[in-house]
């Protein structure tokens, strides 16, 4: 195919996807007249009209509309081919920044499967809550506890954010904790202050208010830094801990920890755990593999938690 035809098809695809000559021109960094001329060249080659020029703008004809999805898909495939053929400095590197909960809880148990699929990968992991400028290229992806991302980012929702009190079975027996418990006064509590704008994130007073329990008195809940490994206090039988299930799910399934108040007192927060990356970035084959694998394993994790809670949240 001649280059002029490819350029004309690119112009037509942009008009069909964006809805106007002007929007297509802005994306292609040319004038609307140049886009219109490219489409006219293609109409001359094909011998049929692709755009109806009207006073209010150009309207695609039925044949053009019918080809829109295939054109967009074809150019996306071409972009991936160019990425695959490119030699970059990154090579087989994939760099990911993520929350502490994901780095210490969910991801490590999943990674053996990924390394089996991509033994050549140079995987760089960073555990941090700090904001990261993904456009700089230091990291390819971020996994964050967040709401919908800004428009310049693509995102995949991995699993929901669930919060519930956890403790050892022995601790629950010692303090008589059960689904019909009505007060936490006198129960040793661990509290982790989480810096989040999530409107549904709860602390002990908010959790108690939501489920009708008498709240602990002020000063009863020692504050533990989020990076301190707060579940250590729960495992040691030193307190009831308000935990994100991404941290504690493995221990709950083994029976090392329990949900003493049952699955009905789990809070689903407004935010979710999401994988994000710059929308305009062309991903390498290994980066696409990591993206797709993370989406697959994250959704499997979400289904596993849902099924476990529905079954009564008993150790498996």
Describe the structure in your own words.
By secondary structure, the chain is an alpha/beta fold. The chain has three domains: 3-85, Winged helix-like DNA-binding domain superfamily/Winged helix DNA-binding domain (Arc Repressor Mutant, subunit A), CATH 1.10.10; 93-158 and 272-306, D-Maltodextrin-Binding Protein, domain 2 (3-Layer(aba) Sandwich); 161-270, 3-Layer(aba) Sandwich (D-Maltodextrin-Binding Protein, domain 2). 43% of the residues lie in helices and 19% in strands. It has helices at 3-18, 21-28, 32-46, 62-85, 100-117, 169-174, 204-211, 231-235, 245-254, 285-310, and strands at 51-54, 57-60, 93-98, 122-127, 141-146, 153-166, 189-190, 240-244, 267-278. It has a seven-stranded mixed sheet. β3 (93-98), α5 (100-117) and β4 (122-127) form a beta-alpha-beta unit. α1 (3-18) packs across α2 (21-28), α1 packs across α4 and α5 packs across α9. The longest helix is centred in the last third of the chain and has 26 residues, at 285-310. The protein starts with a helix and ends in a 6-residue tail after the last helix. The model has no long low-confidence stretch (mean pLDDT 84).
